[in-house]
Description:
D-Maltodextrin-Binding Protein, domain 2; alpha/beta; 13 helices; three-stranded parallel β-sheet; 2 domains; six-stranded mixed β-sheet; binds pentane-1,5-diamine
Amino acid sequence: MKKLMTAFIAIIIVSAALIVTINQLNSAQGYAGADTLTVYNWGDYIDMELIDQFEEETGITVIYETFDSNEAMMTKVQQGGTTYDIAVPSEYMIEKMKEENLLIPLDHAKLPNLKYIDTRFMDLPFDEGNHYSVPYFWGTVGILYHPEMLPGKDFTSWDDLWDPELENEILLVDGAREVIGMGLNSLGYSLNDKDKTHLQEALDKLNKLTPNIKAIVGDENKLLMANEEAAVALTWSGDARDVMWENEALEYVVPEEGSNLWFDNMVIPKTADNIEGAHAFINFMLDPEVAAQNTEYVSYSTPNKEALEYLPAEIVEDERFYPSPELTARLEVYENLGKEMLGYYNELFLAFKMHRK
Ligand code: N2P
């Protein structure tokens, strides 16, 4: 009996050690379980208090990682080393991910809060029927500038950025579509142009902007602008709005030749391990009060119609950040240009960055 007891205890100890080792191995390799959820989002793009609230309400532990461009996000999802349960790509990348079979279809029955999204942000061409994606934030690309640092300067046109007086004053967002798109727009071309002669013209023109560029940056652009270390930034509307709360002298404009209108949506990548938890997270973020709190925190424009009711008028009535449908109609949404062409845009952007060195 004593022998049997000893053997029994030994079996328990060995199994416990085995379970601990397997768990350690799993977490070292990035496997997450039903009680964890790995969220992959743009930098500075959520109120972390909401993550705490979600964890408290569901008992799920969130592992949170950030990226600073669609391309960087896509590479990580394709590599498949991490079990991302949620990602937040922009429209053209959602289309590309769908094409490459990298997304899991959503179960709308598990997303009752979807009814709060304004219908004008639903059913868009990159994901008709919203089978794979649900709106998170939307916005424009434009110019953030400091009028007092640049007396007499106006930014009605993209060409204003090429003014020699702006030497070493401009920050550019670190995104291939944004920068090449700006070059194309400044020449009167579409930011979805596939004509390689036009693209070469855009690159040549961008190279001439080099003396005016201070840095190509990610989220640091906000701090640099708030501290008046640069006078101009090519940036996304919400980042601009966020800095403008910090430094009220700053202004944001969308140049008259046109610009980009973008939509960032939540998706469940193929890498997901907790599909149930991912639906719970999406539905949580769609709750109007949650969406309103998130909007106040990150300063981007919410597609959640009901959330607008919880937001101050000074936010939702500001036409610079909630442009009217008439105004947005003259902006362009990035199209999925296909693997080869998107690769070509990335190459051009790299060539532009190398030219600066
Ligand atoms: C947040 C970046 C928003 C990305 N810092 C616009 N697609």
